[in-house]
Amino acid sequence: MSRAYAEVIGDPIAHSKSPAIHNFWLGKLGINAEYRCCHVGPDELAGYVLERRADPDWRGCNVTIPHKQAVLTLLDSIAPDARAIGAVNTVGPCEGGVLLGRNTDVEGIRRALDGIEVRGQRAVLLGAGGAARAAAFALKQMQPATVTVMNRSAAKAEQLLTEFQLDGIALPLGPAPEAELVINATSLGMGGQPPLPVTLEQLPAGAAVFDMVYAPLETELLREARRRRLRTIDGLTMLVGQAAAAFSTFFGAEPPREHDAELRALLTA
Ligand code: NDP
Fold first, then answer.
1. Is 245 near ligand 1, meaning CB less than 6 Å away?
2. What is the pLDDT of residue 97?
3. Are 55 and 36 in contact (CB under 8 A)?
4. How does the average pLDDT of the chain come out, rounded?
5. How many CB atoms are located within 10 Å of the residue 83 CB?
6. How far is the CA of 33 from the centre of ligand 1 (A)?
7. Among residues of the chain, what percentage have pLDDT more than 90?
C-alpha cells in the first residue's frame, strides 16, 4: 500500500540529520508517513524533479549540497526569501501541483535568535556564503543598527552588504569588533575544517554568540563565549528550527516542539 513521504536529496547525503528529526516528529504525532534520504547526483536532479512531480505520495523534499542553486530553475514558483538568497532548501507541492521552492534556513535563523534583541543593536556576521546570505536576509528584517561582515573573500562580504542593503562594513576574519550579536556562518570550526580565526574579547557583557556549525555542537567559538559568560546559541537550534518550518509544509501539522529535549538527546547520541 502506498504511503505519504518526504525526503532530503543531495550528494553526499548519508550524513544528513533530517530523517532523524522528521521521523521523530512523525512518530510522536502518529502520522502514517515517512521521511527518507535520497541520493541524487548532479546529473540526476532534473529527472528526479520530473519523476516526483508525478508521484501522488510525494509531499516534497529538502535540498542540500550541491543542488540548492540548481533546483531554482526546475520549479514553478520561488518564495521571495529563496529568491533573494539565491538558494532553495525546501520544495513542497502546493495547490494545483505547482512546485514551490522556499528557504527555511531563514526561519531557522529567526527561531534561533528568538528572545535576542537585534533591533538597533550591532551585529557581526562571519561568512558570505549560502548560510550567511540567509542570515543577511533574516537580519535585514530584524533591523540591527549595523552589520559588520567578516569574510576571507572581501569582495563577497562587500557584495553581501550591498545586495541586502545592510548598513555596515566588511572586514577580514580576526578579533570580532564590539557588538551585541555575533553569528558564525562560515564552515570554519566544523570537524575537518580549519579553526575559526575569530576571538570575542571586545564583546560586551550580555552579548550573544550564535554558531551555525553543528558538528561538533560545542565549537571553540561557543566555548570561548561560555568562558566569557556570553549567551550562546548552537547550530542544532537552527537545524531543528529550519526542519520545523519544512515539516508543516510536508505533513500539514506543526511539529511537537515540546519534545525538543528528547530530540536533541537523540541527535547528539
Ligand atoms: P558555503 O560554502 O556557501 O560558505 C562557506 C563560508 O565559509 C564562506 O564564507 C567561506 O569564505 C568560508 N570559508 C570556507 N573555508 C574557509 C577557509 N579555509 N578560510 C576562511 N573562510 C573559509 O557554505 P554554507 O554557507 O552553506 O555553510 C556554512 C556553514 O553553515 C557550514 O558549517 C554549514 O554546516 C552551516 N550551516 C548550518 C545550518 C544549520 O541549520 N545549523 C544550515 C546551513 C548551513 P569565502 O567566501 O572566502 O569562500
1. no
2. 76
3. no
4. 96
5. 15
6. 33
7. 95
